[in-house]
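Hey,
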Amino acid sequence: MTKQKMNNARRSPFAAILVILAGLLISGGGYAVASSAVTSSTTAQTSQEAIDAGKKLFLANCASCHGSNAEGGNMGPSLIGVGAASVDFQVGTGRMPGQASGPQMMKKPVQFTEEQTAQLAAYVASLAPGPSIPSEEWVGEAALAKGDTTHGGELFRINCAMCHNAVGAGGALTEGKFAPRLEGVEAKHIYEAMVIGPQNMPVFNDANLTPEDKRDIISYLKYVEANPSAGGEELGGLGPVAEGLFVWIFVLGGIVVITIWLGAKSN
């Protein structure tokens, strides 16, 4: 009786469907596992190729100051542990390679392509763990569009305005140093500056400012950049000192000139 049931089950039209489904699941699963292994291998190979290419670029352009193993020296600090974000910021903004010593490295035309910058970043990142380059999740256009500009403005005024000015116009520091103007700076470079603390800037890790906080700050800066002041001429956004100087020279000066002119006319 059991054998008869089995024969009947084999003759059932559903049996063929089940066999086909099983075959599809087995072949599809096998293909997924194989393709995943191939992708992982390709990614690892590409990453290693980038590291090797970055090392060659480093030895040719950076080792004279930072040492052949990025250990640092009299001319430059150690890069072990600074992470990919530091390299992407310094090289991607043209501050590195440096041309001359001074109070701080100046922004200048970028000397490497994006691919070469990524290769240098991959090599330095391979030396020791460090801050990574921010993903599109935090600095992409879609992410910044979702940012809270009001919250970002509050955070910027609390943590950044004392150096960069309330609208990111920049400002002077001590000993010939300065906080740069943030208008036109790429979103990822602003984010990187917050996590690496270049030169005189403090480090804002995720315990100080969460990734959401950093995104909101960048959203605020991009909003200010895209929307001119509603209060008239902003005089470079440099604040009350510039505005007071303008009033003192031009407004009060104009009043003095008019007073002299009226006095001379009456005489």
